[in-house]
Amino acid sequence: MQLWTIEGPERLTFGRVTSLDVRIVAGRLAVLASEGPPTLEVAELESASPLVVTYDEDTGKLSVAFKDLTWDGMLGWLRRDRRHTVATLTVPKQCAVNAGVVSASAVVAGFENTTQVKGVSGAIVLDGVSGAVHANTVSGDVESRSMEGDLAFNSVSGDLTVADGTPRRLRANTVSGRITADLLLRPTGRVTLTTVSGDILVRLPEDVEADVTIRSTSGRLVSTFDKLSNESGPGTKSLSGRLGGGMASLSATTVSGQAALLKGENA
Amino acid sequence: MSPVFGHGRLRLYLLKLLEESPRHGYEVIRLLQDRFLGVYSPSPGTIYPRLARLEEEGLVTHEVIDGKKVFSITDRGRDELNARLDELDDLEQEISASVRDIAREVKEDVRDTVKSLREELTKMAKDVRVGAQEDGKRLGDEQKAHFRRIKEEQKRQWTEHATQWQNESERLTGEWRRIWAEVWATVGGAPANRAALDAELGGLLADFVARVREEASDTRLTRETVDQVRTVLDEASTRIRDILR
Questions:
Q1: Which of A102, A115, B3, B182: disulfide with A77, CB 3.0–4.6 Å?
Q2: What is the mean pLDDT of each run of 10 residues along chain A (267 residues)?
Q3: Does B114 touch chain A if contact means CB atoms closer than 8 Å?
Q4: Which of B27, B92, B99, B183 to probe by mutation at the A interface, max A CB count within 10 Å?
Q5: Considering only CB atoms, which chain A residues are within 8 Å of B20?
Q6: Residue of chain A minimizing CA distance to B39
Q7: In angstroms, rounded to a whole number, what is the distance separating the alpha carbons of residues A4 and A12?
Q8: Strands, DSSP E only, in B159-242?
Q9: Beta bridge partners of B63
Q10: pTM
Q11: What is the DSSP secondary-structure string of B148-174?
Q12: What span, in angstroms and rounded, lies between the C-alpha atoms of A88 and B31?
């Protein structure tokens, strides 16, 4: 087990890395998949306490964090002093990534294993991440491009936007965040979107094969697919139906938000 | 082209890559792409002549294995690399700076994509809403007429459907197969094993659906048969759930 304490700009290179755990407070964090040697580059660091890096060459576990920042009580991070860090990590794409930010923004790109990103108010950008992804934020937005595989998203007021997504399983829950998704669905694809007051906008290709249901208690429902049947009972409205031959499934539920199902071009 | 490789530095980096281990030319190209996260991707037309030049100078050598040239560094190449270690450090520094730039670019790029998507979809939804409001009353009346029409048509449609399904199901079987083959051929992301198994499962489900449709199209469905089928499907899905658990 090797240990470094970092107090200023520094660059470290490691051997084989199979799992990464990184937690920073403010600033910018980038975690990128690369076949080169795993590296940590700290470009800026303004903090009273040092950043602690531990690396275990036997297990391939790399961790980068302030010593007193633990995964428990993430909200507690907000109360701490301002610790500005700009860090870039490059590790192999098969690496399991666990990243946490408080107000810092995070970019995570290219991973294929399990990826967990937790944020409080910082925005999280996911690019080309496949495998199983969990993204949780309080007020930070999550922006995803070219995702594949599984994505689970939870937020209080943070928005979720999925551009060019091909989910096997997409689950998104938010209270007041907006959900915007442009999706391609495979036959086993399963999408469940839930908000309390946030709007839901989903675009599917015109030739999609899926069973869809969108529901809202008091918000407006909109669809540009015309084959859906409208069922409006007291207290809830829903639009549902089978698009194409069906098989994939999409359900979007909101209490007071608006839900829109939009028709895109052919896939 | 990345500014990182000015002043004979690509040559230095090639030596470094070959010092790590002997490699094929295409492997060198792939490694360069990977280290620069796909932003710098040299063409074979750039790399092969460079390697040939290095070989002329006696810094690398090659042997042919399975009809492919495998390049490795020579002692002279190692000397040159050692003499330029400082420069290599600088280069590594610059590479990490360029990785940082790449991270920033990725972020800006994704944010732009996402922003324009949000605007586009919001506008689409709004346009629909404006349309819907204007047509609200008319739509309501139309819908009533529509429902009446539907009722009348339903009977006729059932018979039509049956024939249609028969034709469709044949087409669908082929179609699903094709979609699956295509979809999974282009998947680079998910672990190969899982993706292949997922594809197989999807194929099984698609075949199943197609088969049931075909059989259903030959008979006249009644409420009772549908209920029976539902019971059987529920049982099947419970058993499948047990297996998958």
A1: A102
A2: 91 92 92 86 86 94 82 57 85 93 91 92 91 92 92 95 93 95 89 95 93 91 87 81 86 94 86
A3: yes
A4: B99
A5: none
A6: A34
A7: 9
A8: none
A9: B70
A10: 0.68
A11: HHHHHHHHHHHHHHHHHHHHHHHHHHH
A12: 20
